Fold these 4 entries.
Entry 1:
Amino acid sequence: LLSATTRRSLLKFRHMSGANVRTMATIQEAVAKRVPEWRADIKDLRAKHGDKVLCEVTVDQAIGGMRGIKGMITETSLLDAEEGIRFRGYSIPECQKLLPAAPGGEEPLPEGLFWLLLTGEIPTEEEVKGLSAEFAKRAVIPAHAEEMICNFPKEMHPMTQFCSAVLALQTESAFAKAYMGGNVPKTEYWTYVLEDSLDLIAKLPAVAAMIYRNKFKEGKLIEADPSLDWGANYAHMCGYDDPGFIELMRLYLTIHTDHEGGNASAHATHLVGSTLSDPYLSFCGGMTALAGPLHGLANQEVLRWLIKFKEDLGGKEVTKDSIRDACWATLNSGNVIPGFGHAVLRKTDPRYMCQREFALKHMPEDEMFKLVSTLYEVVPDVLNQTGKVKNPWPNVDAHSGVLLQYYGFTEAEYYTVLFGVSRAMGVLASLVVDRVLGLPLERPKSLTTEWIRNNFEK
C-alpha cells in the first residue's frame, strides 16, 4: 500500500504532466499573470451571453430568503446540490490529494487552498512554503489593536471581539490610503486589495489567539513561531501543540474557507466590498453575518445539543434504537435536530465526510464520535419519515465540535472565531477577483408586498 504522501506525490505528477512546469512565483506574480486572461474572458462572456436569462424568480423565492436565485458571480467556488463544493473546479477529496501538506503531515495546508482560490492553479510545495513565510512576515499586530484586544471585557462574546479587532486593524489599509490619495486607476485597485488581504489573513491567527487566551486562559499570551505554517502557528498561539490537533486545525481551516458566494458571510463581504470599502471593513461585514445563530454560530449550537442529547439518554447505551427514540422525542417536543440539512445541498456535506474520515483515523473509540456516527446512520431516515425535510443529511457543523472537544479545545463559544479565520481566505480571495474583474456596486431591486399583489391580482 502506498503512503498518503506517496499518493499525493503521484497525483501531483499526473496533474502536472502534459503542462508546462512553471517556475516558483509569489502570490502577487501568480495573480498578475492571470489578470489579462480573466478580464478578456469576462468581456467575451458579456459580449456573447450578456442578454441571456439565468433564471426566473418566483414570489416564494423573493419572500423566502432568495433561495435558488442565480444573481451574482463568484469565481472561487461553486456549490452543487448533489456533489457539494468545488474549489476552482476541485472537490474536497481532490484538494486533499493535490494540495501540499506539511512535512510529515497528511492534511492540506490552508495556504495551498488560498493560492488555488486566488489564482485557479494548484501551487507547488515551494510556492506554499513561500506564502507561509509571507504570512509570517506580515503577522505583527499594531500596538493600538493589541492594547484594545487585551482590554476587552471578559464577558464580551469572542465574535464581537473578533469583529472589533478587525476594525481596529483597518488603520493599516493600503487600499484606503491609496484611494484617498486619488491617483490609483481602477484597473489597479486589485493590487491594493490583495496587499490588504495578505496583511489581514496573516494577522488573523494572532488576533484570534489573543482573544482566546485573554478570554479563556487568564490573558497568558503565547508568542508566535514564524517557522510554523499558518494553521500550526494558530494552534500553537492558542496553546495546542499536539500533532493530531495541528493536523485537525489544518483540515478545519481548509474546508471552511469558501462555500460559493451566496452564503451570508461571503455575500456580505462581497456586498460591502462592492461599495469600494477596503478589505478590513468588507471582511468585518462578513464576520458580523457569520456571528448569527443561523450561520457560523451553528457549530457551537450543534455541540451543545449533542452534549444535552447524551445527558438525556440517561446512561443508556448508544444504539440505533435508543438514538431513534430520542430523535423522535426531540422532534415531537417541537424542537429540531441541528447539524442536519442545508439550504443548497441535497446529500451529505463533503466537509462532514472528510471530518468523519479524520475521526475514524484518529479517534474511532471516542464516545462523542460514536454518538455522532450513530446519528449519521439514524437521523436521515427519521427526518425522511416526517415528510417535511428536503435534505435530511448532515452538514459540516454536525461534526466539527466533537473533533475539537476530543483534543481539549472545549470552549464552544469560541468556535465561530475559528470559522471566521478560515472563511477569511475564501471571501478575501473573492474580493480580490471582484476588483480584478471590475464588478460594480451591487444594487438589486426590491419590491413591496403591495406591489406584488397589485401586479398579480389585476
Entry 2:
Amino acid sequence: SKAHQLNHFSVLPYNMSSALHTQGETTVIRGGRVIDPASGVDKIQDVYFRDGVIIDNPEIVSKSHERRIDEDSSSTKKRRLEKPHSRDSHVFDATELLVVPGLVDLHVHVYEHATPLGADVDRYCLGRGVTTVVDAGSSGATTVNGLRHFIAEKAKTRVLAFLNIAAHGLAAAGCSGMGNGGELDSLNQVNVKMAADCIKENRDMIVGVKIRLSADCADDGANEQEAFRRALQAADAAGVPLMTHHTFSSVPLDGQGGCPGGLRKGDIYTHMLHGFPSTIVETKSGDGTPQYRLGPGIASARERGVVFDVGHGAGSFSWTTAEACAKHGFWPDVISTDLHVECCEGPAYDLPAVMSKLLHVGMPLPEVIRAATQSPAKAIGWDDRVGSLAVGRNADVTVLRLETHVDGVELEDCQAQVRRVKHILTPVAVWRDGVRMEVNLRPPFMNPASLRGVARWDDLLVRDSDKPKFRCC
C-alpha cells in the first residue's frame, strides 16, 4: 500500500509539534473508534484534551472556532484551515481509525551509545505510537544515572526502567544464548542492598528489577540460581516486581526455585513465546505429528498472578509457540517488543507490528489493545497516570489504522518462519502529554536482513515441520 512507501517527512516533524499545542486550547480527536479497555470503552466517540490532560467534552467547543487538521489518506497531504477566533480547538479527523491510549512498551533496550543493544527510543518507540517505555535492565545500580541523564531526560518518549540486578547492567552484553558470556558471570556484581537502595532513591524512574536467566550470561549456569535468588530479594526489599528473561536456562520452569515457579504475584515472565530450551510449551508424544501443551507450572503461575509478557526481540517470538498458546487460550497479559538494535528493523519492528502478530493468531483486538496499554501500565504501578483515556489522565493518545490486506502480507518470526498476515496495525498519529509528535513509518515487511534468525532454527524445540528456505544473511 502507499502508506508503506511514505518517509518521515510526510508526517508532522518534532520541531513543528509545538504549533499544534497552545496553552489553554483544546484538542479534539473526532469520529474514531475509541478502544480504552481501562475505561470499558469501545465505540465511536470523540476524545478531548487540554494542557496535557484528558478532559470531558467541553460545551464551549464550536464548529465555527475550529482549526481543522485533515488527513487525506490517499495522498498523505496535510492541510490546515484556520479561521479568526479568540478561543479555538485543534481537530484531528479520526474517521475509520482507532483511537487508543498512548501505547506502553514494557520491555525495550534504549540506552543508546552506552550499551550494545541500545536503540533510538524516539524513532522506534514514540515515532511508532508508543508514549511510555520501560528499559528492561540495560542499566544497573552503578550505571542507571547515565540512562537517566543521557536518555530519559532528553527523550520525548517517557522512559522508565527495570534495574538490572547486575550493577553494571548490560554495559558489555548483547543478546543471550550466543555463548559469549554476560552480566552474571561474577556474583560480586549482584548486590541486593545496592540494587534495593538504588530503586528507593529513584522511585520516579525505576519500576522494577530485571534479571536474564540464561546459562551463558551466568558462568555457564553456575551463577543462575543464586543470582535469581538475589534478584527476588532485591525486588522484595524495594517493593517492586521482578522481570525475568528465561531462555537456554539451567533454572527449571516449575518448583520454588523455578521460573516462573518461584515468581510472586505481580512478577513478570517475559519472552513467553520463544521456542528454545526453557520454552513454556512442551511437546506431547503422539502419532508423529508434534502436539504441544503448556509446560509444568505455567497455568498455576498465571493463577498465582504472575504476568506473562511477549518480549519479542530478535529471538523470542515463534509463530509455532504463539499458535500453540493460542490453541490453549493462553494469551499474553502484556505485549512488548524487547526492542533493541538487532530487531528494530525486523523481526520485531515496533510495538504495533508485534500487536499485529498477536491479532493474527486470534487474540481479540480489544485484548490486544489492553495488553499494550492498561496491562503494562498496571504491571508497573503507573495505571493511575498512563494506559487510559479517562478524564484527568495524561493526554497520551495514539491513533492507529487497522489495514486489511486481502492477500496477506508476509511477516516473519525470529527464526524466519513466515505467516501471511491480513490485518496490520499502523501508527497514524501520536500525542504525548497533549503535544503532537512525529510518526515515522516502518520499512515494508519483510526485511531480508531479519531472516538471519533461520540460523537458530535447528535449536528450536517448538517449530514448524519444515525449515524455512531462506539463506542466512
Entry 3:
Amino acid sequence: MIKGKPCKVLSISVSKTGKHGHAKCNFLAVDIFTGKKLEDMVPSTHGTTVPVVKKTEWEIIDIGDEDELTLMDESGDQKTDVNLPTIPEGMDKKIREAWNEGENQVMVTVQAAVGLEQVVAFKTL
C-alpha cells in the first residue's frame, strides 16, 4: 500500500545508512486499479502494509445501458455491482464487442482489494 492505494511493487532500492543511522527504502510501484506509478520512501526499520488482493472469474450474463455488468460464477451466484472497466482505455468496448449482445460466452476476471472491485481481464470462450 502506497499513499492508501493497493499497488504492485516494481522495484525496491535501499540507500546506505546516513548520519542519523537509518537506511531508507525507496519503493517504485504501480496502482493495481489505475495503472499509475507511485513512489514512497520509508526507513528500512519500519514495516509496510500489504493489501489482500482477490481475483475471481465471472461469466457475463448481461451488460446494461449504463455499462453495469450482471455476472455469474461457477456456482450460479450472481453479482451486479461491477461496471465495465474504464482503465485501460478501450477495454470496455472490446468486452462489449466480444460479448456481442449475448451471442458469445465471455469470462471476466474481477480483482478486489481494500473495498474496491474492478474488471482487469476478459476472455471469450
Entry 4:
Amino acid sequence: MTVEDTDLSNTITYIRQVEADVDGRLSRITPKTSWLSFSSGQPPTAEILHYQVMSAECTLLTAVMQLLRDSLVEKVKGVINIRSAWQKYKALLDSKAALEASGGHLDVDSSAGLRFGIGTFISSPAKGAGSRLVLGVSV
C-alpha cells in the first residue's frame, strides 16, 4: 500500500489544527500551571483529562503520519512525537488515578482513548513472564 506524500501532509496539517483547537480549549479551563502539574494539590477534573487525552491522541496520530512519510527528517520528528505521546499518556495514567482516588470518574470515551494510547506502547508478556514491557522497560 502506498500513500501519497501530499495526503500525509494534509492529514498532519488537519491533525495539528485539531490539536491547536484542543489546546486552546484546554488553556481556557486549566489552571495556569504546567501541562499536568496541579500546584494546588487538587486532581484534574474529568473535563481537563478529556482534553488532555485528545491532545495525546493528536500527538500519537501526528507521529504515525510522520513515520509514514518518505523524508528522514519527518521520520525523526515522528520518533520524537512518539516519545512525547508516551510521556503524555504516562502522565495521564497518574492523573486518572488521582481523579479516581478523589471520587471522580473519567468518561467512557476518554477512558477508551487512554487505554488505546497506552495499549499502543505495551507489548504483551511472553508466556510465563510476570511483567509487561513498555517501550522495552519492564513494568
